[in-house]
Amino acid sequence: MERETEKYRIEFMSKELEISRSSYYAWHSRPKGRLWNENMYLSQRIRSIYEQKKQRYGSPRITAELRSEGFSCSRNRVARLMRKQGITARARKRFRVLTNSNHKLAVAENLVEMQFNPEKANSLWTTDITYIRTREGWLYLAVVLDLWSRSVISWRADRNMDENLVIKPLEKAIRDRQPGGELILHSDRGSQYASQRLRQILKENNITQSMSSKGNCYDNAPVESFFSTLKRELIYRESYKTREEAKQSLFQYIEVFYNRQRRHSSLGYISPMQFENLNKITPN
Fold first, then answer.
1. Helices 163-177 and 196-204, interaxial angle, to 10°?
2. CA distance 90 to 112
3. I want to staple 154 with a disulfide (CB 3.0 to 4.6 A). Which of 144, 170, 246, 251 is the partner?
4. First CA to last CA across the chain, in angstroms?
């Protein structure tokens, strides 16, 4: 009844629920218990975190955020308080993959075989391309992830989906990370990743190339998962007028939020940069 007082009169609700007004007022005047007060404060913090993270967090990440603030609360309790407020993270949407494997260029063997948990930095990178709609036309995005920390170590957005779209971020990742040991770069069989120029860059930097099996989207699941998260938490919420506006939005999401703030489930609900800093990896 208390939650509905802005919509209905106490007299009306009392009659419909067959509860006397005196009983309601007696209950309302009693001091609230400790649990009630805790839930009220937690609900306020949940709403604040939810809005602060731009409605991107569900109960697991909000729980992790609360625990980092010193609250002792279960995920079930947080989920229940979220339901009472009618708040939820956005559901995933399916999107098309842009792989063009209908070419006669050389393809590499699948060396990863869905083993996506390397034990050290700069031992397994994965890369892929997706697309973003703007009113000017499509904007194509290529990313390079280090699967050790799930960090987006390099990315490029461009109006053209050619080999430069994937080569430029790869070159930047090599400059910034300076990998010195054995490193595998895993991708799909798209023509951009099979180009002679890209293969030459890999050879010059002692990087071994690996490609997904034909027609198996799960062979590059981590980067597909990143794109799914990006689309759900950012792209599907926006309507970009220009490609430049979309690029600025991508920068804020990837560099400011995803790498440095967003809690990653496979990292124990800390961000990729926190994980790298805790493990003494400090990219340029």
1. 10
2. 31
3. 144
4. 57
Whether the CB-CB separation of 283 and 260 falls below 8 Å is answered with no
Distance (Å, rounded) from C-alpha 112 to C-alpha 110?
Answer: 6
Locate 7 and state its tokens. 């919509």
Q: How many CA atoms lie within 13 A of 115 on its CB side?
A: 10
> Tokens 């001091």 map to which residue?
31
Does residue 165 sit in helix, strand or coil? helix
Written as six digits, the tokens of 250 are 């991508």
Measure the CA–CA gap between 40 and 34, rounded to whole angstroms.
10
- How does pLDDT run across 22-72, given as a tens digit for each residue? 766 665 565 556 676 677 778 888 888 887 777 778 888 888 888 888 877
pTM for the full model?
0.70
For 147, half-sphere exposure in the C-beta direction (CA atoms, 13 angstrom radius) is 23
How far is the C-alpha of 138 from the C-alpha of 22, rounded, in Å? 64
